[in-house]
Design brief:
Layout lengths: L19 H24 L9 H6 L7 H22 L11 H11 L2 H13 L5 E7 L5 E7 L13 E7 L6 H4 L3 H8 L5 H10 L1
Antiparallel strand pairs: 1-2, 1-3
Helix pairs in contact: 1-3, 4-8
Bound molecules: manganese (II) ion.
Length: 205
């Protein structure tokens, strides 16, 4: 049984950048739904019992039944992606990272500001529902990508990328407060991204 990550903050804690009702709905309905549906699908796949969600998502082709494979891809992706998303947000966010991640950002993107600009542009250009990602490759290099729906970098690049930051650009992540203004949401989300957590993810990846 997979369980949603526990939030380290209240639903209202990210106000005014991310509003309370969006957080309640996003965590309590959307993320809970993906988690329940993943667990339901896995009841029919006893051979996957004991595997981590990362192992499952990197090996979707091991699921022979097409409908079950799609269910695990969509709901397992939704489960994993939101666990990451909610973990890297914090009311104390917005401060640039330090240490090894900061050095890698400077080396790969020139500056933190350039990284934020590239991530923002990538997230803005996702057509329809999807995600923008910052991942670490096996050499330690940082890579920005985007995926449709609830796909993620574990499912691309031969499973070589480890996501360390995910930006949800499904409308449910911002529509209650920002309506069609995805660009405003993207400006706001960077004020609550906890780069010290992202730096931790980078070291662990
Ligand atoms: Mn979402």
């Amino acid at each position: 049984m997979f369980e949603q990550v526990k939030l380290g903050y209240d639903f209202a804690a990210l106000e005014p950048h991310i509003d309370q009702l969006t957080m309640e709905t996003h965590y309590g309905k959307h993320h809970a739904g993906y988690t329940n549906n993943l667990n339901k699908a896995l009841e029919q796949l006893p051979q996957l019992q004991g595997k981590t969600i990362e192992e499952i998502l990197k090996n979707l082709e091991a699921i022979e039944d097409a409908a079950l494979r799609t269910a695990v891809r969509n709901n397992g992706g939704g489960y994993y992606n939101h666990n990451l998303y909610f973990q890297i947000l914090s009311p104390q966010g917005g401060q640039p990272p330090q240490g090894k991640l900061a050095e890698q950002i400077d080396s790969d993107f020139g500056s933190f500001e350039n990284l934020v600009q590239k991530l923002t542009a990538t997230a803005a250009s996702v057509f329809g529902s999807g995600w923008a990602w910052l991942s670490k490759d096996p050499s330690g290099k940082l890579v920005i990508t985007s995926t449709p729906n609830q796909d993620n970098p574990l499912m691309t690049h031969g499973g070589q990328l480890t996501p360390i930051l995910g930006i949800d650009v499904w409308e449910h992540a911002y529509y209650l407060k920002y309506r069609n203004m995805r660009a405003d949401y993207l400006q706001a989300i960077f004020k609550v991204i906890d780069w010290s957590k992202v730096a931790e993810m980078y070291l662990e990846a």
